C-alpha cells in the first residue's frame, strides 16, 4: 500500500506542476484555463490523499466545476482572438528573471518546511474530514466567519450585477 | 523514502511561486487572474496539509472560506474584465490603469 500512495503522490504532484507551468506559459487564455483545470483536479486528488474527503468534493464541484466554468464561459463570451491578446514579446526573459529572483525565497521556504518533524499521511480514523464533523465545527465554532462569508458573497453578487448593468 | 506532510507543503510552495511568476511576467488579464487563483489553491493545499499535520479540522474550514473568497473574486473581477473589454477592446493589464480613481 505504501508504494501505491507514493506513486499516486508523484503522479498528482507532477500533473499539478505541469498544469501550473502550462498556465503561465500558454499564450491563449483558453489553453491556460484548460491547463489550470488539470492542476485543480490533481489538487483534489491530493486532498483525498490527505483524508480531506469533503474538501475533495468541494474542490471538484466549486473550483473545477463552478469557478472554472465561469472563467471559460467569459473567455468564450468575449470571443478572444489573436489580435486581442497583448503582445508579450519579452515574457520568456521576464519569466527567467522572475525565476532567478524567486529562487532564494523557494530555497528558504523549502529549507524551513523540511526541518519540520516527519508526519506520515496514512488515513486517519474518527471521521476526520467527513461532512458531519465539518458541519459541526463550522456551525458551532466558526459561525461568525461563516456569516461574514455569506455577507461577502451577497455583496459580490450585487456588485457584479451593478457593474454589468451600468454603462461607463 | 516515505512521503510525509512535508512533501505536500513543498508542492504548495512550488505552486505558489509559479503563481507569483505568472502574475509578474504575464500581461494577459485572464492569465494573471488565473495565476492569482493558483496562489489561492496553493494556500489551500498548505492549510489542508497543516490540518493533517495536527489532526485538527480548522484548516479545512479556512480552505472553504478561501474558496468562497475566490468565488466572490471571480464574479467581480470577471465583471470588470467584461466591462473594460467591451469599452476599450483590450485584455492588456496596462489598460487597467483607467481604474485609478
UniProtKB/TrEMBL annotation, chain A:
Task performed by this protein: NDH-1 shuttles electrons from NADH, via FMN and iron-sulfur (Fe-S) centers, to quinones in the respiratory chain. Couples the redox reaction to proton translocation (for every two electrons transferred, four hydrogen ions are translocated across the cytoplasmic membrane), and thus conserves the redox energy in a proton gradient.
Keyword RNA-binding set for record: no
Keyword entries, A-Z: Cell membrane, Membrane, NAD, Quinone, Transmembrane, Transmembrane helix
Gene3D superfamilies recorded: NADH-ubiquinone/plastoquinone oxidoreductase chain 6, subunit NuoJ
Family annotation (Pfam families): Oxidored_q3
Domain of life: Bacteria
Localization (cell): Cell membrane
Entry's transmembrane regions: 6-26, 33-50, 56-80, 92-110, 142-164
Gene Ontology molecular function terms on file: NADH dehydrogenase (ubiquinone) activity; quinone binding
Membrane in keyword set: yes
Bilayer topology annotation: Multi-pass membrane protein
GO cellular component, one term: plasma membrane
Recorded family membership: Belongs to the complex I subunit 6 family.
EC number assigned by the record: 7.1.1.-
Protein name: NADH-quinone oxidoreductase subunit J
Coiled-coil ranges (or none): none
Catalyzed reaction equations: a quinone + NADH + 5 H(+)(in) = a quinol + NAD(+) + 4 H(+)(out)
UniProt cross-references to InterPro entries, sorted A to Z: NADH_UbQ/plastoQ_OxRdtase_su6 (IPR001457), Nuo/plastoQ_OxRdtase_6_NuoJ (IPR042106)
Predominant localisation class: membrane
TrEMBL record, chain B:
Gene3D superfamilies named among the record's database cross-references: 1.10.287.3510
Any one GO molecular function term: quinone binding
Lineage top rank: taxon: Bacteria
Any matching Pfam family: Oxidored_q2
Primary location group: membrane
Biological processes, Gene Ontology terms: ATP synthesis coupled electron transport
Keyword hit for Lipid biosynthesis: no
Membrane-related topology note: Multi-pass membrane protein
TM region positions: 6-25, 32-50, 62-85
EC number: 7.1.1.-
Location in or out of the cell: Cell membrane; Membrane
Enzyme class per UniProt: translocase
Keywords attached to this entry: Cell membrane, Membrane, NAD, Quinone, Translocase, Transmembrane, Transmembrane helix, Transport, Ubiquinone
Signal sequence annotation: none
Catalysed reactions listed for this entry: a quinone + NADH + 5 H(+)(in) = a quinol + NAD(+) + 4 H(+)(out)
Gene Ontology CC entries for this record: NADH dehydrogenase complex; plasma membrane
HAMAP family: NDH1_NuoK (MF_01456)
Subunit description: NDH-1 is composed of 14 different subunits. Subunits NuoA, H, J, K, L, M, N constitute the membrane sector of the complex.
PANTHER family in the record: NADH-UBIQUINONE OXIDOREDUCTASE CHAIN 4L, NADH-UBIQUINONE OXIDOREDUCTASE SUBUNIT ND4L
Family: Belongs to the complex I subunit 4L family.
Function: NDH-1 shuttles electrons from NADH, via FMN and iron-sulfur (Fe-S) centers, to quinones in the respiratory chain. The immediate electron acceptor for the enzyme in this species is believed to be ubiquinone. Couples the redox reaction to proton translocation (for every two electrons transferred, four hydrogen ions are translocated across the cytoplasmic membrane), and thus conserves the redox energy in a proton gradient.
Protein's name according to its UniProt entry: NADH-quinone oxidoreductase subunit K
Amino acid at each position: 500500500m505504501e508504494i501505491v500512495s507514493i506513486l499516486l503522490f508523484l503522479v498528482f504532484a507532477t500533473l499539478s506542476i505541469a498544469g501550473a507551468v502550462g498556465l503561465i506559459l500558454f499564450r491563449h487564455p483558453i489553453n491556460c484555463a484548460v491547463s489550470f483545470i488539470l492542476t485543480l483536479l490533481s489538487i483534489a486528488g491530493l486532498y483525498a490523499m490527505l483524508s480531506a474527503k469533503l474538501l475533495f468534493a468541494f474542490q471538484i464541484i466549486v473550483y473545477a466545476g463552478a469557478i472554472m466554468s465561469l472563467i471559460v464561459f467569459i473567455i468564450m463570451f468575449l470571443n478572444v482572438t489573436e489580435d486581442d491578446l497583448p503582445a508579450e514579446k519579452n515574457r520568456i526573459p521576464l519569466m527567467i528573471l522572475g525565476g532567478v529572483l524567486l529562487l532564494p525565497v523557494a530555497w528558504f521556504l523549502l529549507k524551513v518546511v523540511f526541518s519540520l518533524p516527519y508526519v506520515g499521511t496514512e488515513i486517519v480514523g474518527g471521521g476526520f474530514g467527513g461532512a458531519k464533523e465539518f458541519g459541526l465545527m463550522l456551525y458551532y465554532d466558526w459561525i461568525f466567519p461563516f456569516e461574514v462569508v455569506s455577507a461577502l458573497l451577497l455583496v459580490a453578487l450585487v456588485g457584479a450585477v451593478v457593474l454589468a448593468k451600468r454603462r461607463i | 523514502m516515505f512521503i510525509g506532510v512535508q512533501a505536500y507543503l513543498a508542492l504548495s510552495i512550488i505552486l505558489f511561486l509559479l503563481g507569483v511568476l505568472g502574475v509578474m511576467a504575464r500581461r494577459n488579464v485572464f492569465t494573471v487572474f488565473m495565476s492569482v487563483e493558483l496562489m489561492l489553491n496553493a494556500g489551500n493545499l498548505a492549510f489542508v496539509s497543516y490540518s493533517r499535520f495536527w489532526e485538527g479540522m480548522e484548516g479545512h474550514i479556512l480552505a472553504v472560506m478561501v474558496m468562497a473568497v475566490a468565488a466572490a473574486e471571480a464574479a467581480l473581477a470577471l465583471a470588470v474584465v467584461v466591462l473594460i473589454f467591451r469599452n476599450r477592446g483590450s485584455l492588456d493589464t496596462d489598460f487597467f490603469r483607467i481604474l485609478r480613481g
